Model the fold of this input.
Amino acid sequence: MFGGSGLGRGGRTPGFLVRNQGMLDPQLLRSQPEALAQRLAIKGFTLDVQRLQSLDDQRKSLQTQLQELQAQRNRSAKEVGQRKAAGKDVAALIEQTSGIAGRISEIEGELDAVRRDLDALIHGIPNVPHETVPSGDSDADNEEIRRWSEPTAFDFEPVDHVSLGSGLGMMDFETAAKITGSRFVVMSREIAKLHRALIQFMLDLHTTEHGYQETYVPYLVNSNSLFGTGQLPKFAEDQFMTAGDPAYYLIPTAEVPVTNLYAQSIVSEEELPICHVCHTPCFRSEAGSYGKDTRGMIRQHQFEKVELVQLVRPDDSWQALEELTGHAETVLKRLELPYRVVTLCGGDLGFSSAKTYDLEVWLPGQNQYREISSCSNFESFQARRMQARWRNSESGKPELLHTLNGSGLAVGRALVALMENYQDENGAVVVPDVLRDYMGGLGKISP
RNA sequence: GGAGAGGUGGCAGAGUGGUCGAAUGCGGCGGUCUUGAAAACCGUUGUACCGCAAGGUACCGGGGGUUCGAAUCCCUCCCUCUCCGCCA
Done:
């Protein structure tokens, strides 16, 4: 099918040029390109069907030629061996066969070039949106599907977390800028502890009540892993990378290392569903968002997140998306933070996702709902890129898994939401009931 | 950082230039036997691509090279293990 240029395991080979691992089902891509193009248009993506077909035709023709030559070479080589064993003269046959090798490498060169172009094209095609995804160009077209609680009412003018944090003397952006740069924060004392308490609470909730397995992973990954989840090759500029060779990348989300735990592996049916919860820092270069959310902790280069990751049987993935979203919602409910759930429209949907629910928490400081969790079903898109499979007992064959993930929750933004919703008129922050045990019984953080 | 040993099918583990996609064992699947099960025995058991099919091609950590022919030889990178050094 749509070939690749080989999976580079480190070295200087770009790791994301992976053989036979287009992200969409290659059969589908070849047999129904027009239908796919139509679906992809919902995502604002234009599929160049003609170019795709032309490249694939070239690929196929070259591959057929190559295989014929290889078969010829194999037959001759085998005969040389047999004649030699029989003590016959082989000089003439070797002479005759030696020409084939040259032609083979010639065609191999052409085939590689075509495959490189084809891969570049295929690897840039996003996942196909599910039929329930609303059309639209931007977040303005996202569809609200439910709300929980009401925006917090105050009998004074609420301030944002930056004012609260600096008023408490426990949140310092200037010092962070001094030691690193913009979009970082230094937290101290009770706010730093509250931040940690949120992490502990979320991990405990998901492990004890929702059945997730706590997991610790590397915060630096290789390019193959980023290809697997879909951040590469298209979104290289969003990543921080190290200077060495091979380069490592700081993870933009735990989704990358955790989902890739199952790259190139086959799990048994009994292991499914696989549910991991993982707390990690996340690093994002935020390229192209220079003017956006510059104030405060909403958009940082480094933030903490508790991530939920599931690998499930294909038949179960849509049910799993609803459940996973519910698990993330439970965090907000227990923290008693008002939120709403929206379905992302096609134009706002991520590259790898078939469908995404965003959880948006109410922020009094901004007087609006802001994203605090993103829950997605990737169907087989990521699994195909990373070859994460399960053995289907009915067919006896390895088949692609479906992967899902969701923030449960973004910790930095949860802290922001908590401070802003739980503030009092004196600039203090009340500690929500569920966090008090984690705060040594502390009920309020005061200046 | 230094020295050495390795990376082979789901797993373990042979194979050092030619009928090797790869012995053997375990595991899996099917069968015989059994009231049932176990044991034993027999058979079967990788993935992808091209093809209506027959069949063909590729894959023995990645990449490159030598050769008529490479799992096997050479170069290079990555990874694992052991010992020494250093170190949170």
